[in-house]
Amino acid sequence: MHDEIAAIYDMLWNTGFDPVSRGDVEIDPYIANPGSDRRRGLTLIFRPPSAVKSKILDFLAEIQALEPDQYYYTAANLHFTVLSLFTAITDHRPEYERLPAYESAAQKAVLSCQPFSMRLAGLTVSKSAVMLCGFPEDDRLNELRGNLRRHLIQGGLSQGLDRRYILVGAHTTVMRFAAPLKSPAAFSQFLLENKHRPFGTFQVDELQLVKNDWYMSQQNTPVVAQYNLKDN
Q1: At 41, which CATH number?
Q2: 77: pLDDT strictly greater than 90
Q3: Contact 212, 41 (CB under 8 A)
Q4: Per-residue pLDDT averaged across 73-89, rounded?
Q5: Which domain holds residue 129?
Q6: Domains: count for the chain
Q7: Alpha-carbon distance 176 to 178, whole Å?
């Protein structure tokens, strides 16, 4: 499993690093005017503990010194996605009207889920964002995702699932491009130097079902339900 996840992160890097090193980045059109972004979704997430957040924020402070005009995730916004029950879209009202059914599916899926361990190590990059690489240390996260997909399908709620890819790893997006890079060469060199930077290992024993915008910004991400994971 580790090799499969690492291959996905490497593929992202191999696709994204060269364009970024030339300053060829995709600037998010909504970041400068978040009030115009009406996209909303419903997502099962978990958040890193304080010690790991601190290491991430130290890393982001170093990047921000090089590129102050980009969009950086705050401590409150940092998260890992278990599964998007439906991806953030503008026409979200019909899905939110089915919130009790979504919540029921999530509740059933987490009933048998035990705490799991996550190692956060290294980074990868695309033309739109910088991400840190998460590696589940057992198969429990994948089992949870499978359970949740199954319960969504059984409940007639699968139409909103993100079909672009099947989540295998657990990256966390920490920076999005909001402006042209001031120094693509210095930025890409920093990424190279930190490609294998460790951020720590932590246990996940709490999940949150949240309504969310595209960025999981605190003001637009109310918690619908919280689930505590326990060893059976």
Answers
A1: 3.90.1140.10
A2: yes
A3: yes
A4: 91
A5: 2-228
A6: 1
A7: 6
